Amino acid sequence: MLKRKDLLGLKDLTAEELNEILDAADGMHKVLATGVKKIPNLQGKNVINLFYENSTRTRTSFEAAAKIMSANAINISASTSSVSKGETLIDTGKNLDALLADIIVLRHSMSGAAHLLAKNVRAGVINAGDGLNEHPTQALLDIYTMKEKFGSIKGLKVVIAGDIKHSRVARSNIWGLNTLGASVTVCAPKTLLPAGIENMDVSVSNDLDDCIRGANVVMGLRLQLERQQAGLFPSVAEYNAYYGIDAARLMRADGDAIVMHPGPVNRGSELSSEVADGEQSYILRQVTNGLAIRMAIMDLLMQGRNQ
Ligand code: CP
């Protein structure tokens, strides 16, 4: 039993907890595979999506997961809420508590926002991405997709290429994959690597042609132009020439390798269209698996509450 009020990151999850979530997602996946789109697990529960940043996949996936499990799913966008009148995150959270929220799914531009909210509300908080810190449900659906393909995470060679510096997805994947025994290499120009990355128990490379050799998983990351100061790389075209994942580079990976990307994809920047739409692309599989992962997490958190 996942004995936690909140799911805030993968940094402090044990292998047992990670496997419990992956196993529960497998159960949800099997239910969805039968074509069933309504189960009673969260009947009478209020799930509130509180998003201070834009989202397509995460928000839709949480809303769909909540509705499939018979919860009342409520969406709040910062731009159309009283946040735009100056209300703080903590006050907003306390008001959602007063409105009988059981789960608050939070996306916020500030690293640590989900931890701050979780300390101040009764509802369970799920981190749907906080600044540059973590995006745990994305990493869980990534890890689930790798396990679905390869049977086990232990010993997998995973290359994460791109804007590591600004990527909460990379950080959550590194924590989770390391805990489950994968071998992770991060690859980027020096300007797109965060200080201290080598202390995260990963191999670090600036040469994608070299480190992609023999990889089982090649994960591209979006160039987060909105979070960057000027001058971290000369141009998107030059970035693509050295770090873009195209068919020629992918040939160097293991013959059975898969390509992943959390989305949204900037075609021609971090991935060529040929790769994004190719047979080795698991990008849309990741999106589908996100539904089962989010169902499993909400179910486990609510089961834990009822103990
Ligand atoms: N992967 C991801 O977080 O996508 P969205 O920003 O669309 O939610």
Which CATH-level-2 architecture of the largest domain?
3-Layer(aba) Sandwich
CATH fold naming of the largest domain? Rossmann fold
Tally of contiguous helical segments: 11
| Rg from Cα | 19 Å
Terminus-to-terminus distance: 9 Å
Q: Profile the largest sheet.
A: 5 strands, parallel
Strand order of the largest sheet: 7-6-5-8-9
Structure class: alpha/beta
CATH class label of the largest domain: Alpha Beta
What hetero molecules are in the model?
Answer: phosphoric acid mono(formamide)ester
By DSSP, the count of extended strands is: 9
Q: What is the element layout, followed by pairings?
A:
Blueprint lengths: L14 H19 L12 E6 L5 H12 L3 E6 L11 H10 L4 E6 L4 H8 L3 E7 L5 H15 L6 E5 L6 H12 L3 E5 L15 E3 L2 H4 L5 E4 L15 H8 L3 H4 L7 E3 L12 H4 L6 H23 L2
Parallel strand pairs: 1-2, 1-3, 3-4, 5-6, 5-8, 6-7, 8-9
Helix pairs in contact: 1-11, 2-11, 3-4, 5-6, 5-11
The structure holds phosphoric acid mono(formamide)ester.
The site of phosphoric acid mono(formamide)ester (CP) has 9 residues, from helix 2.
Structure description:
The chain has two domains: 15-133 and 289-305, 3-Layer(aba) Sandwich (Rossmann fold), CATH 3.40.50.1370; 136-286, 3-Layer(aba) Sandwich (Rossmann fold), CATH 3.40.50.1370. 39% of the residues lie in helices and 15% in strands. The protein contains eleven helices and nine strands. Helix 5 crosses helix 11 (283-305). It is globular. The mean pLDDT is 95.
